[in-house]
Amino acid sequence: MSEFPLRSDALLLLAMCPALAVSDTVVNAVGLGLTALVFGPLTAVTFGALRSRLTPQTSIAGLLLLSSGAVASVELLMRAYSPILYTNIWPFVALFSVNFALLDALMAERSTAKSTRAVLRLCAILALALLLLGIARELVGRGSILHGAGAAFGDWAQALETKVFAVDMGFLLGMLPPGAFIALALLIAALNWLKRAHSAST
Amino acid sequence: MATPTEDAHRPPHDVARSAAVLATLGAALALGLYGLWQLTHERIERNRQAWIEQPLTALLAPMKYDNDVLADVITVVSPDVLGADAPASIYRARLAGEPVAAVIRTIAPDGYRGPIELLIAVDYEGVLLGVDVLRHNETPGLGDVFENREAGWLEAFRGLSLSNPPAGRWTVRKEGGAFDAFTGATITPRAIVKAVRRALEYYRAYRDRIFEADAAGEP
User: Fold this and answer.
1) Chain A hits for B184, Cβ within 8 Å
2) A80 touches chain B (CB under 8 A)
3) ipTM, 2 decimals?
């Protein structure tokens, strides 16, 4: 990754900023995760196809055009099919896609196939991290999993809502923004620990 | 790829091609978005209606009315009585042309984290039919407990009016009022109580004008 100006884990952390804001419940986290999984690769592939036809100077303009188109489409779809999710996470989706534009621009040195794979991998990691953070924070903050899924994803998801334990007030730190940073730190610590355990055993 | 002779012409050629690609991309995106809008705008409009219609009809459930309440709406601006600079909508319910109830959509400007959007329903005599929170930014778990932990809190408004409790007690218990606050959150309930009182005062002062004004049509 020597040709890459930012290390991918640093970039990932950067992209996590809006993610931290919406990971207070599993539903919001999954909403943003799905958006990332669909639109990240889609814009990366489209941009990859266009890049060779543009000069380096105009490729940024093309990228911005493409991102704004993607953001506008997500907005329309979300308002039509999940207005609750739209009210909850919309501003962060818009912010999030700026990160994708940045990502695609940074990948410009690489071949299309390679950068698409990298974007896909990053999106998968992001979605997974979001899911883990969402589960941890909602469990601690509310004692539930997928609270409000029925309202956000449709009636079929109502059955997925689980009350794990009854809390009077919950451990609020989990729901509030500082809880996001603590949960993220714990997640990174766990990953490092796993990495070390893995390298020690091989 | 490029031969030397082509390279000599490269800049103007590439710029023209880039411009063409960008223009095509823009046109394609515009077309795609237009198609998507065609596909979704009816649903979005329906969602927007339902968002207000569901709580509105729930609040008016105990009343008998036969008009299209959603369309029978006026917009008023009254910073001095309602306490907010933003316009408020008032939906009017009628039975055979006679006024039976009004639903005031206003905001409590002094919530803990920004304004709280409220729907306040009163019958013709000025007795509260109910209060609902449409949108808010209150702290999860503290200021938003009217949504779950103390779900009955908003119900306590039903049946109250400006004379019950008396005007001086329209605040939270901590300030000598008649309303419970939430554990750990006083500002939110105080803001809501104050906004409801202001809406009732507005209704009492302007009731006849509220029902006589021509409907402004759909907001």
Assistant:
1) 169
2) yes
3) 0.73
